């Protein structure tokens, strides 16, 4: 084969993938390899593909993703810790033509915000909830979260999580799937290219279901927390595959009936 | 027969050196540079550019979206 110089390939007309313009040029503060960055990027891509940048309102949580408004170039409101679904309820009821999504971590959605989450899902608010589950409190230094696995070492459970003393890990996604107010409930991950593509499709579906006014679309993203787990990114991804995914199996949990 | 050739361009100053693109590349094109960027991270670069077919796996998995992928069809008998 004839030699082709890289300069011949690197031309504007040959671009097959580039960063979406809905994501700002700010360098994200997340640690290297963090699933938050990937999820931000695919949400931005979905917003760009659907052409709803000026009609989307995001609700940022408290946690690592508290600065989401710096990275996704849509209208964003910062919520009090755990209260993103309550805020999303208000915004969606006042502006029903907007696409409203909440973006929450496990400390926000599954710990301090459990009541808001369950009741927003039970009322069947017409919003999208994106739940990043990394099984640890990443921002505050790797403490045990409600979603930490049994036997998982964190800074508050240095000998491993003991279910007798600290309770069992909570599967929020299965929990909200039981409620009649949820329309679409799925669990995805973002640590391999294939899973990223699947997650993007799931998030796109979740946004599109908002048009139908049928209830909450809930997407859990099983993510890695390299700093919290105290592992390099590649090892954390392997650990996620071996430990998180058997307990949090991927796939659709509740799909709309045809 | 047409063949597909690809290339990636890494925004080295934004790359955080997580190596997720390295393990995702099916043709083992990407490696981490010995040099570091302004923040001290080893950044990704094309070590084996001839093998790249522009599959976009690296860019799709890149958390920070620093990779731009280019792809073009190349005829076998192209005269360059």
Write a short abstract of this structure:
The complex is a heterodimer of chains A (258) and B (80). Chain A is of the alpha/beta class and 258 residues long.
Describe the structure in your own words.
The complex is a heterodimer of chains A (258) and B (80). The longest helix of chain A has 17 residues, at 193-209. Chain A has a 7-stranded mixed sheet with strand order 3-2-4-5-9-8-10, with helices on both faces. By secondary structure, chain A is an alpha/beta fold. Chain A has helices spanning 6-9, 35-50, 68-71, 84-94, 106-112, 114-123, 163-166, 172-177, 193-209, 226-229, 233-247; strands at residues 15-17, 56-60, 75-78, 99-105, 128-133, 136-137, 143-144, 182-189, 216-222, 251-254. The model of chain A has no long low-confidence stretch (mean pLDDT 94). In chain A, helix 9 links the parallel strand 8 and strand 9. In chain A, helix 2 (35-50) crosses helix 9 (193-209) and helix 5 (106-112) packs across helix 6 (114-123). Chain A has one domain (24-254): Rossmann fold. The N and C termini of chain A lie far apart (51 Å). By secondary structure, chain B is mainly beta. Chain B has a single domain (2-75), classed as Alpha-Beta Plaits. Helices cover 12% and strands 38% of the residues of chain B. Chain B contains 2 helices and 4 strands; from the N terminus they run E-H-E-E-H-E. In chain B, the strands form 2 sheets. In chain B, strands 1-4 form a two-stranded antiparallel ribbon. Chain B has a two-stranded antiparallel ribbon with strand order 2-3. The longest helix of chain B has 5 residues, at 20-24. Strand 1 of chain A pairs antiparallel with strand 4 (67-75) of chain B, so a sheet runs across the interface.
């Amino acid at each position: 084969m004839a030699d082709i110089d890289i300069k011949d390939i690197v031309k504007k007309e040959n671009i097959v993938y580039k960063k979406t313009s809905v994501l700002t040029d700010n360098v994200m503060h997340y640690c290297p390899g963090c699933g938050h960055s990937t999820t931000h990027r695919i949400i931005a891509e979905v917003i760009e593909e659907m052409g709803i940048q000026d009609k989307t309102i995001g609700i940022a949580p408290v946690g690592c993703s508290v600065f989401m408004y710096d990275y996704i170039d849509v209208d964003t409101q910062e919520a009090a810790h755990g209260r993103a679904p309550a805020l999303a309820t208000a915004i969606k009821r006042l502006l029903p033509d907007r696409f409203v999504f909440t973006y929450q971590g496990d400390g926000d959605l599954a710990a301090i915000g459990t009541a808001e989450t369950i009741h927003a899902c039970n009322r069947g608010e017409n919003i999208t909830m994106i739940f990043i589950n990394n099984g640890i409190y990443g921002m505050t230094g790797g403490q045990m979260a409600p979603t930490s696995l049994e036997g998982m070492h964190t800074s508050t459970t240095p000998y491993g999580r003991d279910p007798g003393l600290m309770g069992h890990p909570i599967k929020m996604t299965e929990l909200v799937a039981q409620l009649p107010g949820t329309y679409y409930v799925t669990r995805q991950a973002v640590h391999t290219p294939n899973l990223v593509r699947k997650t993007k499709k799931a998030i796109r579906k979740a946004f599109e279901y908002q048009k139908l006014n049928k209830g909450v679309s809930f997407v859990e993203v099983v993510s890695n927390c390299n700093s919290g787990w105290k592992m390099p990114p590649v090892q954390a991804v392997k650990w996620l595959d071996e430990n998180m995914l058997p307990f949090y199996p991927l796939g659709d949990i509740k799909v709309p009936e045809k | 027969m047409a063949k597909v050739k690809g290339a990636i361009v890494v925004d080295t100053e934004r790359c955080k050196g997580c190596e997720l693109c390295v393990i995702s590349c099916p043709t083992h094109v990407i490696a981490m540079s010995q040099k570091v960027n302004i923040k001290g991270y080893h950044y990704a670069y094309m070590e084996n550019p001839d093998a790249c077919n522009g599959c976009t796996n690296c860019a799709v998995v890149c958390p920070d979206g620093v990779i731009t992928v280019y792809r073009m069809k190349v005829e076998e008998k192209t005269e360059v």
